[in-house]
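User: Here's a chain of 425 residues. Predict its fold as tokens.
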Amino acid sequence: MEKHRVIIKGGYVVGRGTEDIAIEDGRIAERGQNLATTPNDEVIDATGLVVAPSFVDVHVHLREPGFGYKERIATGTQAAARGGYTTVCSMPNLNPVPDSPDNLKAQQDIIDRDAVIEVLPYGAITVGRKGEELVDFEALHKGVCAFSDDGSGVQIDGMMERAMKEAVKYDALIAAHCEVEELLKGGYIHDGEYARKNGHKGICSESEWEQVKRDIEIAEKVGCRYHVCHISTKETVDLVRQAKARGVKVTCETGPHYLIFTDMDLQEDARWKMNPPLRSAEDRAALIEGIKDGTIDMIATDHAPHSVEEKSRGLKDSAMGIVGLETAFAALNTHLVAKGIITLERVVELMCLNPRKVFRIEGGLEVGYRADIVLIDTKKQWRVDSTKLLSMGKITMFDGREMVGDIALTMHRGKVVYNALENKQ
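Assistant: Prediction complete.
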């Protein structure tokens, strides 16, 4: 009996040109031009589409366990598949916090039951994410993708140094939400022109970069692998650039929204409220330079769904966070690739290849690798309708905006987990 094969035919493979890809048993079995097919083969016509390794988002809030009214692992992973992702890393601000093997298992059980793609959980750095007592790194490190107290910065310098020393023992990655709490002073948007003109309390840039500076110094001292979450300021870009030049094991991410909007795009609407906030035009320019010169390693959405009620209290009082999984590629393609700021190949590095390298996640289009593949229609024109998002969270500043480029099909381990091509037939 012949093996069941899936063959993706006629697509433009990023970096290689037009090529077919044959898949068997969830892995890439063969690549080449005009691969022969048999009547038993399942053929996916990718003519006119770009073929790339599927995306990885290292910063996603799936909200389970504990906050299933905002998002569930089932809905969040369906949204991720629709956005071209087959691996997401789930942040630890959950209930219970994944700060022990038992608490981690509570999350892993839901992942095993409900996820349609790969979900890699974070472990917390401190017990309860309270910043007061380290978790047991030895007990947790094999079950997590990295350690983070995301949603909170580790405030005590000595605590972060001890955490990094523990991480070094197990070659684990520390992924830090950098925020000096005493500098926040009740702020909730960027401390810039919009805040001053409209009477809002601002969050100063120093609240981010001051802690990044501290952490880089500690990472350099102890030799820890250190990743900075959702960077938003020009000073942070410079600090990371300088640290990399010195050989520090530092990487970082930014979000699509920080590359596209500034604080002067804000409206009196919670669609524009996230943490860190949208910053100045100078900050955006520095971030764009950072993704062009390699200082910024990857783009992550910080997909942070909330209930409609939590996001209906205006700019001042609404919860921080927006959704992003289903619009990330389209937003980057529309605002950066189509405008000639970066290439499609660079987007693939930022969304696929670099996250896999840093977080040590298998993937790529070489023979033998698991078939985690995305087909992209780079020319499709469409309008974002938040009511049609698969995520339970519906709050995005891209609602109603025209986009160029979208996901046509997502395949995880050889199985199609999202397919827009069916609608065309």
